[in-house]
Amino acid sequence: MRFDGNGGRAKNYEPNSFNGPVQTGQPAYAGVDVSGITGNHMPVLHKEDSDFVQAGALYRLMKEEEKQRLIGNIAGNLGKVGRDDIIARAIGHFRAADPDYGARLEAAVKAFRAGR
Known about the structure:
mainly alpha
């Protein structure tokens, strides 16, 4: 169990909008002494290897009332974010998963913010 501040409130993810860590391309660990040919190899990517495919598929599987609850929950929290650029980027991610998902979330966030 950690007894220090564990980074406090510093952002520990990338990309972020708060001058947090950035990808360096450097290995995160030291190499291991082995024999033979080794190295870094790019993974073979498939059309399903998108960050958004599974989220979109799950959304499309939901019943209408489940979609409404999901959109309401997300909009209620995303609508509290103070920076419009972060909201727009987040909505873009939902839109990449499914155009209907993003459009409905955008409308719900606008409605939430108008009612505050």
